[in-house]
Design goal:
Elements (H helix, E strand, L loop, with lengths): L10 H24 L7 E5 L5 H10 L4 E6 L2 H14 L4 E5 L12 E7 L8 H11 E14 L4 E3 L3 H16 L10 H7 L2 E9 L2 E2 L4 H19 L5 H15 L5 E3 L2 E9 L1
Parallel strand pairs: 1-2, 1-4, 2-3, 4-5
Antiparallel strand pairs: 5-10, 6-9, 7-10, 8-9
Length: 269
């Protein structure tokens, strides 16, 4: 089992993930509120990465609650535990596990949360089955995942940017996982005793200079190197994209439309 992220776990990716959480934290907090996350609950942050959402959850559940971050990357687990120590946060713990082999106490958690996790793994139905076992009766699974990555676009269209987007889409197709997993999840929830209480779409529109614009900017520039390694993008195409991007940022009325996501709250019966 691969124990790394598609962009690795170096400082550049750590910074990108921190910025990404800031961009999407309002949506995360909104789902947590509607899902009933509150003081005193035991929460599992599934695929926690370096713990940006984990520490936010810890502030909500307070000293009488707890948050466990689980991630496959030992580097991120070590980072999270170090952060908990230096911050003096006593209700957070990070442990290294594969999402396919969680080996955690059944019936322990009031809330399980994941964001952009199920889109990157296979055997999602087996993961949902295990999530159902880990939840207490009445516990809730809160999920935010991609529904249609192909809706991602930049206006006005530029061939240099389109080449990058299509290379990304091809990379998702050759992976064993299904990036657009969200529409399939409600059927899995039902199969394993999770009653769907909330479903909604998430999509953002942004202009140059705004935070949301910077989110795909950082991803595309970093992931382009991976696409070249995979043989899905040429050096010349990347160079053309890099030259084009500042022109896009200087274009009046330019827009980014982010990939369509869905969010769910599914409660254990």
């Amino acid at each position: 089992m691969k124990k790394d992220y598609i962009l690795g776990t170096d400082q550049a990716e750590l910074d990108r993930l921190g910025f990404q959480h800031r961009v999407w934290s309002e949506d995360a907090f909104s789902l947590w509120k509607r899902g009933g996350v509150r003081m005193g609950l035991n929460v599992l942050d599934l695929g926690s990465g370096p713990g940006f959402a984990t520490f936010d959850l810890a502030t909500i559940v307070g000293a009488t609650g707890s948050v466990t971050g689980v991630d496959i990357s030992q580097a991120y687990v070590d980072y999270g535990n170090h952060q908990a120590q230096v911050r003096g946060v006593n209700n957070v713990e990070f442990i290294q596990r594969s999402i396919h082999e969680l080996d955690l106490e059944h019936g322990r958690y009031d809330v399980i949360y994941c964001r952009w996790v199920l889109s990157w793994v296979n055997d999602v139905d087996k993961i949902i089955q295990e999530v159902s076992k880990l939840l207490k009766p009445g516990g809730v699974f809160l999920v935010q995942e991609y529904a249609q990555w192909g809706t991602f676009r930049i206006e006005p269209e530029r061939s240099e940017v389109r080449a990058m987007i299509e290379a990304c889409r091809e990379s998702w197709r050759v992976m064993p996982s299904e990036i657009d997993i969200a529409p399939q999840l409600p059927a899995m929830f039902h199969r394993f005793g999770l009653n769907l209480e909330l479903k909604a779409t998430i999509e953002k529109v942004s202009s140059p200079g705004e935070m949301v614009w910077q989110w795909p900017t950082t991803f595309l520039h970093l992931y382009s190197h991976k696409l070249i390694e995979m043989g899905l993008l040429t050096e010349e195409e990347r160079d053309a994209f890099v030259r084009c991007w500042p022109e896009m940022e200087a274009t009046p009325n330019a827009m980014i439309i982010t990939p369509l996501m869905m969010e769910f709250a599914a409660r254990k019966t």
